[in-house]
Automatic annotation (TrEMBL):
This is Uncharacterized protein. Residues 1-17 have a biased composition (Polar residues). Residues 47-59 have a biased composition (Low complexity). The lineage of its organism: Eukaryota, Fungi, Dikarya, Basidiomycota, Agaricomycotina. It comes from the Eukaryota. Residues 1-63 are annotated as: Disordered.
């Protein structure tokens, strides 16, 4: 009899007790691992030097993606008041006045433009707007123009002159209200009735 068949016979006869066969799983037949040192170690974490760069630091695959096409350019517009960023396709030679009108129509309030988040320079002249358009694409990325409410821009930068399209704001926080018509008592007025 071979040693293998003998162990099978012995195991089979030893597992009967009081006419009931005891079942053992094969898991318990092999020796158990003692302690954590026998477990495989987890894969090493990547070091800080090998982490991929953030999407804002990467450059687009196509550096000419934002070049003018058929005389049209794409200007990204960021509106922090509504937490929106959208693209506006406009003519390459658009004026500041026409661009402001398009943006005001879209957002529904008088706007001022800034070259970056609060604390940035306000874009109020045609020359500054053209300079911003020429430099809006940096490292293959189209940077947005920041749109703020006209009143907010004035408070952030009170020394900046206001736009001809937007209402003129007072330089002092409280301006007294002066009546446009002299006061007339109502007793001297005649009431018109149809």
């Amino acid at each position: 009899m071979s040693p293998k068949s003998r162990t099978i016979l012995t195991d089979a006869t030893n597992q009967f007790k009081n006419g009931i066969r005891r079942m053992r799983s094969t898991q318990f037949d092999r020796p158990l691992a003692k302690g954590k040192e026998n477990y495989p170690s987890p894969p090493p974490m990547p070091s800080a030097a090998t982490t991929p760069p953030l999407p804002s630091q990467t450059t687009d695959a196509d550096p000419h993606r934002w070049d003018p096409v058929n005389g049209m350019i794409v200007i990204k517009v960021s509106v922090p008041a509504t937490d929106d960023i959208w693209r506006l396709r406009v003519a390459e030679a658009i004026s500041l006045r026409a661009f402001r009108a398009k943006v005001e129509l879209k957002v529904g309030f008088a706007v001022a433009f800034m070259d970056r988040e609060p604390g940035g320079r306000q874009i109020v002249s045609e020359e500054a707007f053209k300079r911003w358009i020429a430099g809006r694409v940096r490292n293959g990325r189209n940077h947005p123009i920041i749109v703020v409410r006209k009143q907010q821009a004035f408070i952030l930068n009170p020394s900046t002159p206001t736009s001809p399209l937007s209402p003129t704001l007072p330089t002092t926080p409280m301006t007294p209200i002066t009546p446009t018509m002299p006061y007339m008592p109502t007793s001297n007025l005649s009431v018109w009735s149809p």
